[in-house]
Amino acid sequence: MPSMAPGGAKNSNQSNNQLNGKVSNDDRRAEFFARKHRIVQQRKSLPIASVEKRLVEEVKSNNILIIVGETGSGKTTQLPQFLFNAGLCHDGKVIGITQPRRVAAVSVAKRVAEECGVQLGQRVGYSIRFDDTISRSTRIKYMTDGLLLREALLDPYLSRYSVIIVDEAHERTVHTDVLLGLLKTVQKVRSGPINECSKIDRMKANNGLLMEKENDAQRASILKQYRGIKLSPLKLIIMSASLDARVFSEYFGGARAVHVQGRQFPVDILYTHHPETDYLDATLITLFQIHLEEGPGDILVFLTGQEEIESVERLVQEKLRQLPEDNQKVKVLSIFSSLPSEKQMQVFMPAPTGFRKVILATNIAETSVTIPGIKYVIDPGFVKARTYCAHTGMESLIIVPTSKAQALQRSGRAGREVPGKCFRLYPESEFEKLSDSTIPEIRRCNLSNVILQLKALGVDDIIGFDFMEKPSSEAVLKSLELLVLLGALTEEYKLSDPVGHQMARLPLEPIYSKALILASQFNCLEEMLITVAMLSVESVFYNPREKLEEARTAAKCFSSLEGDHPTLIAVYRAFDEFLEKSNLGNSREKTEKNLRKWQIRGNIEQMGLHIVSCGDDMLQFRRCLAAAFFLNAALKQPDGTYRVLSSGQVVQIHPSSVFFRTKPDCIIFDEFVRTTHNYVRNLSSLLSTIPCKSRSRSRIHGLNLKDDRLLFVWRGLVELHSCTGLRWTAILIHPLGYCCKERACESFIDF
Ligand SMILES: Nc1ncnc2c1ncn2[C@@H]1O[C@H](COP(=O)(O)OP(=O)(O)OP(=O)(O)O)[C@@H](O)[C@H]1O
């Protein structure tokens, strides 16, 4: 095995020389060949390299294969190359590798392209939502699991793929779980010669996949797409360093599992003697201990979210300033999901010469990625996990201890280029108490998006779908109910035409898709496009702590009395105008928000919806918001908190909202965040009260009984009835406004 210097040190020289403009062509060429040579040597020394032939044989002789190999053994980067070299891309077929996270798909694709000596987008590329580097010649394609699911809508047999590798399957994201169920069926359908009849019969036998399309135009076009095509068998590979091979093997009918032994470099695991009372404090102490006492090498710290990262960053900078100048050479970088992707990618760049890189990351850097230079990992042992309460329909993020699998993945980010150390900030006895794996996301998230996609794929019986782990029937029913209320499904839970089909085509949460579709009727699609694009990227407001007042004053210039959504539109328009005035029009497409807007716009235009602007008529826009987000309506309580009408949940306005102080009577929100309080974020005020009209009972869709309250949900309307004594009160949310009405209890019967 060749001995290697830490990648960071060598690369740093390179980048600094480049910055100084001192690199001659000869130097550049020499550096290029040296790097190429290093990569070749590095690849040869990976544990997986010695079993290449055996692995290829296993893949050739098994249609489903489970591969477990230690972190850094070379699964993600090498296996697709082995299979490509073994001819598994003949006939122009593609090897697809799914990752749970965008950052992994992008960074690994870049690395593999470099290893293959090709330009990204040629033989090797990636495809993630809103970003794609795929060309006709791409044969090794890294993508997110969610993206492959969307591809299945247009190509249900995934006919362009010869192999699909589901990487990091232990993460059990909801997309991975659904994908596994889908791939199981697709694989059965594709194994053996296929003609149209047998194809349909096979589908009938397998989950009823695609059956719903038998009568519709989409099915006809799908069948046309496959006419005359003989689909070859699909190879399916499930991979991870930390999955329970037995569970996966059982799910795939006793599929073969193989183990790739060994790792390239050892990682020392260190624990604390006692539990830490304040893990952020312990993180800082450990970080500076490493910095001052350990040898060179970059440090990766796992924290739970953006706020925590920003506050630790501030404290690190403060402490650094107190150190002697020689010890101040630390470059602090962060990576979390709402950070713009260019910023995320900065962590993969080498630190300036002589500097130590400290990366503060959420769990998006936990699996798959190799961050060059990392020698030390600090793992406080916590993660922010999604939870879903089917009862209230509210999703939130809470901080919980990691699982053993997550701890293993975190330590595996070290020891990839040189031996490493992982500092777990809890005692070893605590590690033993951790659960082996994380609870699958499908058991703890809102399923409406996934159900909509499954319905669009023709899976009628959601409860009966062959999930690896079934979601709770309460969560399925709640999501079905939401989709019916949004008009995506009929009362019989069939995909509605055209709304359901249109919503399924948009790569967005159903409620956003519905808002866009409605906006074309409210003549404000331009404004809704801006809003949805702005909400689907990181916050446009940057509030560095040291300039908080300045940032607040600047934000006030845009704030609208009508709400956060109109405020976002004002910011976007001002930015657009600024670019126009400064003759930067051409660079406009480059901003991420614009990119999202134009990408969603593309989908919208394909549907034939009219993109019209309501100009400054925000009333029309707010009406449209009310029509789409009616389930997220909340009413002010005497104590200044709000009660969500559809769930009864008590919430508060998030401090980032323009309504934090003014507090209108009735609001529509689009995000529920649980931190120290139950907050709602991104709000608009509802209109003034309107006269209440009586409604016929037949339109009642749902009924909840809660304490003294009766809640009725109509399609697009919410009514809350509180019964006190002999009177009940109804609150009606309608695009025109909201109203309260009191009646005597007896009249309720006739309602
Ligand atoms: N961007 C990179 N820069 C430097 N080395 C890299 C890079 N990507 C991968 N490597 C090298 O290739 C090795 C194998 O990486 P790979 O991602 O294939 O491993 P893996 O088995 O899939 O790990 P994991 O289970 O953690 O995803 C790494 O340990 C590292 O030595």
Task: Tag the structure with descriptive keywords.
eight-stranded mixed sheet; Rossmann fold; globular; 37% helix; 751 residues; alpha/beta; binds adenosine-5'-triphosphate; six-stranded parallel sheet; disordered C terminus; 26 strands
Write the layout of secondary structure elements.
Blueprint: H1 7-20, H2 25-44, H3 52-61, E1 64-69, H4 75-85, E2 94-99, H5 102-116, E3 124-128, E4 131-132, E5 140-144, H6 145-154, E6 161-166, H7 174-190, H8 196-205, H9 217-226, E7 235-240, H10 245-251, E8 256-260, E9 267-271, H11 279-293, E10 298-302, H12 306-321, E11 330-335, H13 341-345, E12 356-361, E13 374-379, E14 382-389, E15 394-401, H14 404-411, E16 420-424, H15 428-433, H16 448-456, H17 473-485, H18 499-505, H19 510-521, H20 525-535, H21 548-556, H22 564-581, H23 592-606, H24 618-628, E17 633-636, E18 642-644, E19 650-653, E20 666-674, E21 678-685, E22 702-706, E23 709-714, E24 717-724, E25 727-734, E26 737-744
Parallel strand pairs: 1-7, 1-8, 2-5, 2-6, 3-5, 6-7, 9-16, 10-12, 10-13, 11-12, 13-16, 19-21
Antiparallel strand pairs: 3-4, 14-15, 17-18, 17-20, 18-19, 20-21, 22-23, 23-24, 24-25, 25-26
Bound molecules: adenosine-5'-triphosphate (ATP).
The site of adenosine-5'-triphosphate (ATP) has 22 residues, from α4.
InterPro entries: AAA+_ATPase, AAA_22, DEAD-box_helicase_OB_fold, DNA/RNA_helicase_DEAH_CS, HA2_WH, Helicase-assoc_dom, Helicase_ATP-bd, Helicase_C-like
Catalytic activity: ATP + H2O = ADP + phosphate + H(+)
Keywords: ATP-binding, Helicase, Hydrolase, mRNA processing, mRNA splicing, Nucleotide-binding, Spliceosome
